[in-house]
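Agenda item 2: NDP complex prediction
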Amino acid sequence: METTLKPHKETVGTMVCIIISGPSLNEAREQVKKASLKADLLEFRLDQFGFSQIEAIAHLKETTTLPVIFTLRSRSHGGEYKGDEQQRLEEIKKILVLEPDYIDLEYDVALSFYPEVKRISPETKLISSLHDFAHTPKDLQSVLDMMKKDYISLYKIAVMANSCLDSMRMLRFIRDNAKKGLKLGCVCIGEQGIMTRILGPKFGNSLAFSVLHKDLVVAPGQLAIDELMGRYHLRTIGNETAILGLIGDPVSKSPSHYTHNYVINDLGLNAVYVKISVQPQELHEFIDYAKKLNFLGLSVTMPLKKAVVSLVTEESPDSGIGAFNTLRLNQKKVEGANTDGIGALNAIEEFGLVEGKRVIILGAGGAARAIAWEAKKRGAEVVILNRTVENAAALAGSLDCKYGSLNEFSAYALQGYDILVNSTSVGLFSEKTRLPIDASNMLEEKVVLDVIPGKEETPFLQEAKNKHCTIINGNTMLMLQAVEQFYFWFSNTISREELKKSFNEAFKTIRE
Ligand code: NDP
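Presented output:
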C-alpha cells in the first residue's frame, strides 16, 4: 500500500479516509481493524480519544498498514481538545515522533510551528484545514489563497452549507482548483452538504472522509462508509460519471436515492443519483450551476414542476402539460419532459389499452393534468372531477373534456366508467380526509389507480379492492415514470425492458 498521496493527475480515484474517534483504546483498535479493510487511509482524531499516552497511540498506529493522519483539533476549530494552544502544540510535537504520514494543522496555526514539524518528522506531510460550522464563505477562492503555502500537501476546507447553492459553489471550487493540480479534501457539512461528499470525487477531490457507522459521525452530514461505497459506489465516481438527481422541497421522504442508485449499480451505468433540496427562489441559480457542472439529468418534484418550464430551452412534446418532472441538461441547453402521465398510463395499460375507454380522474392539480393529457393522447374519453370546480373547468377546457365536482361522482359513475384515478393528494398526509369521494358509489370490477406514493394500499385502494377492482398503487406509477426518466437520460444505451426489470427489483428491495 502506498504511504503517500499521489499527485492529482496520477490519481486513479479519490482516497477514502475513515475517521477513527475511539473514544476508548479498545474501541479505537476495533475501529482501526474494521476501517483498514475498507479505507485507503485513516484519520486518528486524537482530540476525541479518551487516552493520550504515546504508547497507546503508537500501538494503534501499528494496528494498521494504512497511512495515517493525526489530528488534534482545538475547540475553537470544532474539535474536542480542552487545553490551550500552547499545550496543544506541545502535544502535537510529542505525537510527531511517531512519524504519522500526515498531520492536520489548522490554517491559522503559528507559522513558526511548521519548521518544528519538519524538524521532528521530516517525512510527515502537512494538511492545512479550515472549518466553519456556521456558513460557507462567499469567496472560497480567497479563503484558499489565504491558506496557501509551499509546504502544504493538501487543503481541507469543511464548511456548513445552508442551501444547495453553497454546495454547488463548493463543487465548482473543487473542480477549478483540482484542475490546477492542487490536492483537496473539501466538503460542505450539514444535510445540504451531503451531495459534496458524494460528488467530490467527480470534481477532483483527492480525499473523501467517512465514518465506520452512523453512531461515529463527528461532523453533520458525514456518511457511513457502507453507504458511501455501497449505495453511492464512491469508488467508481470519477470525471466521466454522469450526475443525476432529484430536486424539490421536501425531498427527504423520497426513496429515489435507494431505487435509482440500485438501478445504476445493477445496470453498471457510470452515474450517481443524489437528492437535492432546492427552494423555488434558488431554482434559476441552481440550474445555472448544474449546467456548468455538467449535471446530466434531474427529476423534478413539488413545488418546482411548473417553475422549471421557463428554464427549458428546447421544444418538448410535453410542453402542453405546462409542467416538467424531468430535465436533461448540458452546458448549452435544458430539455424538459413529463413522465408522470406516461408512468400512470403505462401502469393502467398493463390491464388493457385505454383507447375508447372512459377514464374518471379525481383532482385537477399537476398529476391530474399530466395523466389527463396522456390519457387523451392515447384515445381515452376523460372526465375531470375536482373539489374546486373552477380548477377542474380550467383543466378540462385545455383538454376539451367533461368536468364536474367531486360531489357529482355518483352521477358520473351511474353513466359508467372503465378506469378511475385518484390524483388528489388525499391520503398523502394525515388521514383527516380519508377519501376524496363517497366510496359506496365506486363501480365493481374496474381498473383503479391511486397516485399517492409510498403506500401499497391506500384507503382509496382498499375500498376499490372491496369492489373487486384491479388496483394499481402510486409506487407502480412512480416506478414506471422513473423508467421513462432513465430512458430519456440514457436513450442510446439502455432499453426500457432492462430498466423496468431493474426498477422492479429496486422497488422490491425497499418493500422488504
Ligand atoms: P397539486 O397540489 O397540484 O394538486 C392537488 C389536488 O388534490 C388538487 O386537485 C386539489 O384540489 C386536490 N385536493 C387536495 N386536498 C384535497 C382534499 N382534502 N379533498 C379533495 N381534494 C383535495 O398536487 P399534484 O397534482 O402535484 O400531486 C397530487 C398527488 O399526486 C400527490 O399526492 C403526489 O404525491 C402524487 N403524485 C404521485 C406521483 C407518482 O408517480 N406516484 C407523481 C406525481 C404526483 P383543489 O384544486 O380543490 O385544491
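Discussion summary: The chain has three domains: 15-240, 245-338+479-511, 341-472.
Owner for follow-up: CH.
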